[in-house]
Amino acid sequence: MNSRELIRHPGKELAYRSTSAFGSVSNHAVTLPAGSQLLPAVSTLMDNSGCESGILVLDGAQLGPFNYVMPDHSNDGIHAAWYSNTQTCNAAKVRNATAIIGKRDGKWWLHCHALWEIENTTENITENAAGMGHLLPDEVTISNDVNVTLYAFNGGSFDVQHDPETAFPLFHVLGGTDTGNAFIAKIYPHEDIVTIIEQLILKSGYNGAALFGIGSLIGTRFESSEPMLCPISEVLIGSGAVWCDKTLTLPMHCVDVNGQLFYGNVLKGSAPVTVTFELMVVEQKSS
């Protein structure tokens, strides 16, 4: 069964299956203060940065309490997938998280997927339980001061617009320059994530690059770990995703509708996009 039989979106497919914009990026060490809410704190950072969009890498942040949702089946007869009921976690430490930052109705907004650890102590035994989901950005508390990395992007932007193919409000890519040391992209449903990223980077001419992004996949297979078979998921590009010598290394964290976690380097031809995938690729030049 192919991906279009597994996932049927309500709208007509567009002829183009990705949009992208070149621009300039600079990375900054920034601090999210203890007690702040994620969205207002990020909005302040973006106002101070003067950039049009960005990526925030939240690895190591202490959160709590925070609300999130999981991937889930849709029961509305319209959407091909949906979200779970809102879930709450009292406290956790982020292992990996990426926030895509853009605008919604003219105000800062972010789309964030995170993998976290919860420390459980029972009868003198301490275990770390992992969880993953889609953070609700205006319902997330930063519990401790944390230094994180902002990749500030100018030349193009992410902007939330209604997507007629999927019937979701999604980040779309606007603007762009002819060249730049980075590009942002939106990838549409059913495109194999490895294939389309390779095509985009080859078009850019970058010899080396680092990658950041989040989205959803209709299952995926990995180089050396168990496959994710569920066609509805939330995913996050892991640390160490690189393009080097025309070879893409794409580690991916995934969670399915049952809360099962998967991780590994994605195999080409095995991971079509479910709803959307948002991406930033930053050129890395050899020293």
Structure, described:
The chain has 287 residues and is mainly beta. The protein has a domain at 26-152: 2-Layer Sandwich (60s Ribosomal Protein L30, Chain: A). Helices cover 10% and strands 54% of the residues. The chain contains 3 helices and 20 strands. It has helices at 3-6, 38-49, 193-204, and strands at residues 18-32, 53-57, 62-69, 71-72, 82-83, 87-89, 92-104, 107-122, 125-142, 146-154, 156-163, 168-175, 182-187, 208-217, 233-237, 242-244, 247-249, 251-256, 261-265, 273-283. It has a 16-stranded antiparallel β-sheet that branches. The protein is globular. The model has no long low-confidence stretch (mean pLDDT 95).
Top keywords for this entry?
287 residues, mainly beta, 60s Ribosomal Protein L30, Chain: A, 16-stranded antiparallel β-sheet, two-stranded antiparallel ribbon, 3 helices, globular
